[in-house]
């Protein structure tokens, strides 16, 4: 029946089973009542899942999760990711009850400007939040990446001390999203048995019962991925939940799905089990009824919903955490003594991860990452080489450093990210690279999880055109400033024969719109190395490295200095004072720009070419630099880029000219397609003359 | 073992079984040999899958598919979508052999500029191609949408005559992509038994054997979705293939997966079964060996690979198609005679679909679509109303017309697309709307399939922030100029409390970068109605309707004429000659702009406000209109939009000012977030003064 899910008629009066004391029972009652009360008081927010999953969250935070409320980023902790981010009150309530410093006033202020309790959990904003979530499915895929990194850590460093369990809570929405399906399939193949996915099987979505659009057998699906499935028929029994979670966390070679039948909005009888329980208040009367049912006064105010004894009981989590933490400190010391080499390697990695310029990496004797970069021999002047190839050389060299971890979505050869070593697999958890499969979206989202783990800079690779599959994950990592490196090759219609579906046209412009993502398109081998230096030195958010499939020459007349490329834009070629016209370009088009500028110079025109590998960096450069590169008085400006050009008017203005590609490409030889789409020296020349003439 | 898939040792000499004549056998031999030869001759392209799947394609085109080579768009045809688009030679070879007009010279010219045989199949470019494919997974989801539309057609019009079977061929890549998983799950729930998904189970991807990243049990997964699975252990036996396809096409309430074990690059022994068979030539020697194995001269040239008898046999497909077509014409006439009412309704729909301005729709007596639009009563002046609400009214009214078909990704209430009627389901195939589930990507891709079916204008809806999940599908529909309507509500940080994950900032700018997509952001109820008129009148590609969550006022001083809004930009408010400063804006920000302009006017400054609901349309407007709206000499310009602003410099130049949002939002009341992010009348005013002062 649409609109009604699991049966709620049998839930009373024994609303929670398995509490070991009255105080524990009262703590659970508080955890259920708080979200109902807060949402009703505010008139908006999501209470239904926070109520129904309160016993589960209670068991996690009080019985199962290794965590230390006094030190939310304790390295030895297990992880809990709330993929169903709208149920943020579920998490905030536990962070209050177990002593992370969130107070009732914070809960009451949820979803208000400057509160510590935003509508969806935000990493870095609230202690105890492991990942920003909200867009559905992303938390599941992030958890898979985190579990993958954690398992590699344990494998490479011979230590159960570095072996957390990753728990993730997902609703039907998360499991309908393709990104979670992709990641879950890979988790099964890789045998990530440190991962427990808890599915809130409440049979309800916003538009109605799940049967309207989600009739599949989720348990069978997860079994088909190679997961173990633990069925929990009753989400209200603490002991049953504890057993399921502990069983799920067992290292038996398979990730685990804990399928938890529940009733959204439980224990409300009027709203529970209906789509109306998803969002918004349940009504004053119904909240009063719920409070009464839970043993509170029907008219209890917020402060009365957490009784002193219950809070005192719940706050024992602090002592429990301190004990776990102290015990872990001892284990870690014992491990370090027994495994000095592994400890040294890991410490170096940890140092390198935060500060790649320092000596670090899995093989510190190989020198630090920047020294490895410096040692790369650039191709001979006059030897054209694709920037994807130079990038491949960089990745191979950096393997010696060991501070990177990533792979490809089934294009390791074409994107030149194949590095020596072994692939990560169920039997090779410490492998060197990841075959993500043909799963661009999950790859991007898993890279976020690897970044959250924190030991390695994650990278992934595919064709630039397929960045379209990844944007939802990239946006979230930009929001978290996760320092992920996206390697995108085949960066224009110069891809050629594969045709318009594989030829990016709008992707560079579209990626530049994501706040906090640095889009970097180097123009030759030297720029590739130079931009990598900044990427390693300043891991302050995700970057997209946009690289050519085709060979392109070296910038023969420019001696590319790291500082120049790292400034995002610099004068790569100039005649005279270069004040007659400026031609701005990125990547392969810089060479067209220089050729056009040379022809102008032959006529005595003082042209300059500005290579702008990264707009975002150029914006961050100081004004004096920017004005020197692009003198404000120099208004005859041309931009050339083999992609959509509107945003280039930011740099060239109304009077400037933009040589760009405004429509899709076509199948044919790359050079022929470029020419047909107007990316030619002649076009740049004509544009320059026109800009000068105005 | 990585790099080797299914065993190829037993394939000789009986390379094809089940041919009913030597001529048929020779036709199959040609179909295998042609791709191998062509790719080797060109040095690039994809032969492996085209070779291995040649018997399957042969059986489809010669025995199973209802098609008419002389009339590729015959309405009664079955559909075949090649989701594994890189295997385009598989399709082109059949289009040659069965007489669609592709010649050997076309095959030889494949992947060349202006050839009829681009690298990936392109709709509208090559007769017989049903959908542009290439980005993996999209063809599967498109096929699900097409099957859904076809089944609805049959259900609503009581006719098996309108009941094609949709076949789609996918590789491992397609099945690893989340978009295919989402669509397949929904296909199972909806019981689309007119859909046959053929999986080329060759156990190989580009980076190695599928075990490296795809260890799941695909058959079990599809069973978990509610699909029937037919296993074919040998992809070389024509009779076995025919039986499997015919069984798959049976209407038994479930979609069918035909799992076809194959050897990529078969019958090559040296390259077959390895990742090297995916792309590139097999080498002259190996191609010679393959040709010999198939009974051709080792050094046979292209023309010798299709023997006259074999071609004559294959071209019997033309007669077979003509007979099917003629028979269908008779059935159609009989149906029309027996079901005059259904025939009248369908004819009206067909006419309306192509030309919504004409009287049409499922209930022609309700008047034509445009009349329905004209009859919508706009809110009282001074009554603020969210554009999503007005859009909802439009959708409800157009239900009477019946020319739209779509739904929502579990947000039908919030996006105001809930229309009266029943949901499509397994038992209600003719339902009025689709619950796509929480599957934004599959929704978008399925809308493409509905558009390809051609009877209805498809629409979908979600929050604007989640358009990020859909871009790969939107790009493909832009490439095909598929007239899909994307309804995106909650269009700025004014979303408020749900916070930055749900607040779009970069999406409007990012969508504008997709060539051929019209991004439309109306500023009030009148503009909503006006832009719908153009959307219905000119179905020339996908559109994104970007709508507010919050109430916004009516443009009281502007009498919004359809022609103005349909021009993409017009003067919505003006003081004096409006030549002192122009303030450009879209959507909710138009009202801020007007308030700022009023204040300037109070000081005697001749300000104008330009509402620009659609940049793409404005670009297409004639120059005189554009110059009247934005006089070239008027250089004091300001743009205001609650999102990333770089591209607005295209309209305001270097001297202009852009009031925009360059970083993510935050959780809080919508109005407070807007203010904190600088979208205020004061900010617009200051920008205008600054622009004037320059």
From TrEMBL, chains A, B:
Catalyses which reaction(s): D-sedoheptulose 7-phosphate + D-glyceraldehyde 3-phosphate = aldehydo-D-ribose 5-phosphate + D-xylulose 5-phosphate
Domain Transketolase-like pyrimidine-binding, residue spans: 385-554
Primary enzyme class: transferase
Alphabetically ordered keywords of this record: Calcium, Magnesium, Metal-binding, Thiamine pyrophosphate, Transferase
GO CC annotation terms, alphabetical: cytosol
Cofactors demanded by this protein: Ca(2+); Co(2+); thiamine diphosphate; Mg(2+)
EC id: 2.2.1.1
Gene Ontology BP terms: pentose-phosphate shunt
InterPro entries: THDP-binding, Transketo_C/PFOR_II, Transketolase-like_C_2, Transketolase-like_Pyr-bd, Transketolase_BS, Transketolase_fam, Transketolase_N
Superkingdom as given in the UniProt entry: Bacteria
GO terms, molecular function: magnesium ion binding; transketolase activity
Quaternary assembly: Homodimer.
Role played: Catalyzes the transfer of a two-carbon ketol group from a ketose donor to an aldose acceptor, via a covalent intermediate with the cofactor thiamine pyrophosphate.
PANTHER family per UniProt: TRANSKETOLASE (PTHR43522), TRANSKETOLASE 1-RELATED (PTHR43522:SF2)
Family: Belongs to the transketolase family.
Name of the protein in its database record: transketolase
